[in-house]
Amino acid sequence: MNTLNLADGYKVDHRSQYPVNTEMVYSNWTPRNSRIEGVDKVMFFGLQYFIKQYLQDDFDRNFFSKPKDMVVHEYKRRIESYLGKGKITYKHIEELHSLGYLPVEIKALPEGTLVPLRTPMLTIKNTDSKFFWVTNFLETILSCILWMPCTSATISLQYRKILDKYALKTGGDISAVQFQAHDFSFRGMAGLEAAMMSGAAHLLNFSGTDTIPAIDFLETYYNANSDRELIGASVPATEHSVMCMGTENDELGTFKRLITDVYPEGIVSIVSDTWDFWKVITEYLPALKESVIKRDGKVVIRPDSGDPVKIICGDSNAEYGSPEYKGAVECLYEIFGGDITEKGYRLLDSHIGLIYGDSITIERCKEICERLKNKGFASTNVVFGIGSYTYQYVTRDTFGFAIKATYGKVNGNGREIYKDPKTDNGVKRSAKGLLTLFKNSNGDIVLNDMVNEEKEREGLLKTVYINGKLLSEDSLSNIRKRITENI
């Protein structure tokens, strides 16, 4: 596909709509508001992928490296079937092709930075006055690609904060938190690219994942290397088809074969609600207790339906003293026992565990941890499978992402521009003029707008891409370190 087609249709002729003799358009990418309670900073992630994949690889393969006549013919054919014949001219496309690179400069914060709302993560401007139109022509694809990894990274961090907090409160192993949120979202995402970008964002804060392509994504675009570092990992696990094929009448036999013959050591996760989860808890596991305790490893029980809060922590409306009333963690502790943490909370025996991977949300994660604490159990007794309900049930508006022009030049004269719709509640009000970021005495990132060109060249925003070249590359390890140091 001709890369110039990766834009909203209304972008096609903005070039002729700008004032005559426009020379420069300067824009920024900013999260303007939050629809998630308590989140007032958004994590920046995904720019290096966008630059490598789209500004470099895609533009090179599908535009600059193709013959000019072919590119212009393809584009003209598409636009004339779309807008009608003679609606626009194509000399600007020929000129861009002849130039051989994208004449833009992107300045950005380091990826992994937590950015306050209404503060730009990056700025973009054209570097050649002839191509002022390119700046905002790139808005559509930049916005399309960046909002999801930024959003997923931010949401992933909220899980990390909750799980760290409760592990410390209840005396659980803080190192276990790295694997306490596991990415189960792949099958529910809006395409492979969404799964990779979101899955990579999850791996900034955790190491547990079932989204294997996210690991390849981080090796390809973020200089990670699974031979030298832990990018993402998982364990052998069953699915319902496996349990069903073993038949309901021999479910106990299936459990026994899995933990003694197929996986006699190490961690194995077994889906346990194919028929009757509470029967597995009250009958099968007591019968298998000796086999479980003797194993060199952990058997992880996985309920996969119902209300996760009630299944894990118990249902006060159920019959008093019943398994449903107690909840899965308490039942497992009664069967297998365990230890008491230094904070005085019960921790399951190391040979048995629990993972819940259906319908988990930030609110449910918090409620489960709180209820476990109130019952006297460490929060690290359970692993959470984080699925597409968390990572796909969001939009660009979750954090109000937008690209807005705030400065331009016409006939050599700078113009500080802005938008502030009177019919809006203030969310859409933009900054004005040239922008710079700095840290105040508290270490918070602060925006200054309407600065001069000298001040714009200073501050926290650094040039990462200019005229077709990526000037500096970040790595997964550096981004993870940056996050750890700043939360």
Provide tags for this entry.
487 residues, alpha/beta, nicotinate phosphoribosyltransferase, TIM Barrel, 2 domains, seven-stranded antiparallel β-sheet, 19 helices, elongated
Task: Give a written overview of the molecule.
By secondary structure, the chain is α/β, with parallel strands linked by helices. It folds into two domains: 3-137 and 400-486, nicotinate phosphoribosyltransferase, CATH 3.20.140; 151-391, Aldolase class I (TIM Barrel), CATH 3.20.20. 39% of the residues lie in helices and 18% in strands. The chain contains 19 helices and 19 strands. The chain has helices at residues 14-17, 47-64, 68-82, 91-99, 134-137, 139-170, 192-202, 212-221, 240-245, 251-262, 277-287, 289-294, 308-313, 323-326, 328-336, 362-374, 388-391, 453-456, 476-486; strands at residues 22-31, 41-43, 104-108, 114-116, 122-126, 181-183, 208-209, 268-271, 299-302, 338-340, 346-348, 352-356, 382-386, 401-410, 413-416, 434-439, 445-451, 462-466, 469-470. A seven-stranded antiparallel beta sheet has the order 15-14-1-5-3-18-19. A six-stranded parallel beta sheet has the order 7-6-13-12-9-8. Helix 3 (68-82) runs antiparallel to helix 4 (91-99). The longest helix is centred in the first third of the chain and has 32 residues, at 139-170. The radius of gyration is 27 Å and the shape is elongated.
